[in-house]
């Protein structure tokens, strides 16, 4: 047994000596950083992180600070994230990650990291109060920049019935976590704007909306249905399950304006290839916009529309953006076969989408 005991003791001595060497290197790197030699310090902190298990978290966080001083934001994010991974409950590392994310333009991630760092400080030692005071204005700055980004780059702002509506869109973006992975339903399209404006300016429609139960098919961002709710309707927005988070977000963004008008909103999944859920029954008005954009979409759309109109007590308003005479003919044929007939309604002549004037192309379908 003696050789094994000696071997173990030797390993312990080697390990202790190794950690002492890493600690001395950490001290030297800290001196370099304080002297402004950020490149040398960052490289030495990296060596400490690779050499020492116990000091790796501290070294990664310090390296991230040096990288930020050199405006190497993405590399700083990587180092700070590694520190957080090694010690998730260390508020300092979270705060450093938040600053790196903010400087690299990852606004939503920065807001979350600043919030987590503040929460960790609140649960920590009394000495963390100083860090909380430091983080408060930085968190507010990140929130302000994120909200400004959403307003400028993702939100479509509308004035309807004297009220401001804010419709958020999702598409690939490096500044926040909104993505466009769920297809065209993530964006505001011309057909939705046409229908939204029609509902807001047509006197008969505005009067009919107050207190009405309205269903919107293929809501996407919900621009038409939310306009109906802003005119006093009780609206159910429907689309695929994957688009419900965006619909809930837009409901939240416009709840105040809709409530002031006496309207209400909710959302639910409606897969047109499955039987209609019970919640889509009993409406007095069905809305839809730009839902037929390929031959493959004709039959599911016609089936869904016929199903929700089967009681005979409702009508539908559909804003259609023609893409080809053949596709239009196929759509009208499918509707006619299901007992639905159409007539045109006068729509606004021009709408504005992303600053460009577009000709209105609208159709209205009624049972």
Overall description:
This is Calmodulin-lysine N-methyltransferase. This protein is of the alpha/beta class and 367 residues long. It has 2 domains: 8-149, Serine Threonine Protein Phosphatase 5, Tetratricopeptide repeat (Alpha Horseshoe); 161-366, Vaccinia Virus protein VP39 (Rossmann fold, 3-Layer(aba) Sandwich). It is built from 13 helices and 11 strands. The longest helix is centred in the first third of the chain and has 33 residues, at 2-34. 40% of the residues are buried.
What's a quick, concise take on this entry?
With 367 residues, this protein is α/β, with parallel strands linked by helices. Helix content is 54%, strand content 14%.
Main beta-sheet strand count, sense and barrel state? 5 strands, parallel
Distance between the termini: 93 Å
* Shape by Cα distribution: elongated
Q: What's the Cα radius of gyration?
A: 29 Å
CATH superfamily of the largest domain: Vaccinia Virus protein VP39
Can you count the helices?
A: 13
Order of helices and strands: HHHHHHHEEHHEHEHEEHEHEEEE
Which parts are unreliable, with pLDDT below 50 for 5 consecutive residues or more?
8-14, 353-367
Average pLDDT number: 84
Residues in helices, as a percent range:
40-55%
- Report the CATH architecture of the largest domain: 3-Layer(aba) Sandwich
Helix-strand makeup class: alpha/beta
Which CATH C-level class of the largest domain is it? Alpha Beta
What percentage of the residues does DSSP assign to strands (E)? 5-15%
Number of domains: 2
* Total count of strands: 11
| CATH-assigned fold name of the largest domain | Rossmann fold
Protein name: Calmodulin-lysine N-methyltransferase
Pfam family, one: Methyltransf_16
């Amino acid at each position: 047994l003696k050789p094994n005991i000696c071997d173990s003791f030797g390993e312990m001595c080697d390990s202790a000596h190794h950690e002492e060497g890493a600690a001395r290197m950490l001290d030297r790197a800290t001196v370099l950083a304080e002297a402004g030699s950020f490149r040398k310090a960052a490289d030495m902190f990296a060596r400490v992180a690779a050499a020492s298990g116990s000091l790796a978290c501290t070294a990664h966080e310090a390296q991230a600070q040096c990288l930020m001083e050199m405006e190497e934001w993405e590399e700083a994010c990587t180092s700070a994230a590694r520190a957080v991974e090694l010690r998730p409950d260390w508020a300092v590392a979270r705060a450093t990650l938040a600053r790196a994310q903010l400087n690299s333009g990852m606004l939503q991630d920065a807001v979350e990291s600043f919030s987590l760092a503040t929460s960790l400080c609140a649960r920590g030692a009394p000495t963390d109060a100083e860090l909380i005071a430091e983080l408060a204005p930085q968190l507010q700055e990140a929130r302000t920049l994120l909200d400004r980004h959403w307003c400028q780059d993702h939100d479509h702002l509308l004035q309807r019935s004297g009220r401001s509506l804010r419709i958020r869109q999702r598409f690939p973006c490096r500044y926040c976590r909104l993505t466009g992975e769920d297809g065209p339903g993530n964006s505001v399209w011309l057909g939705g704007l046409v229908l939204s404006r029609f509902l807001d300016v047509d006197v008969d429609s505005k009067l009919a909306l107050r207190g009405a139960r309205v269903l919107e098919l293929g809501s996407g961002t919900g621009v038409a249905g939310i306009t109906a709710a802003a005119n006093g309707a009780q609206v159910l927005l429907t689309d695929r399950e994957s688009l419900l988070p965006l619909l809930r977000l837009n409901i939240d963004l416009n709840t105040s304006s809709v409530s002031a008008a006496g309207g209400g909103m909710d959302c639910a999944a409606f897969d047109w290839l499955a039987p209609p859920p019970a919640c889509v029954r009993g409406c007095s008005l069905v809305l839809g916009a730009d839902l037929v954009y390929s031959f493959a979409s004709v039959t599911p759309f016609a089936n869904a529309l016929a199903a929700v109109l089967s009681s005979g007590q409702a009508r539908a308003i559909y804003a259609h953006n023609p893409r080809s005479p053949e596709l239009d003919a196929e759509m009208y044929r499918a509707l006619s076969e299901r007992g639905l007939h159409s007539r045109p309604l006068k729509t606004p002549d021009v709408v504005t989408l992303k600053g460009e004037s577009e000709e209105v192309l609208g159709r209205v379908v009624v049972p």
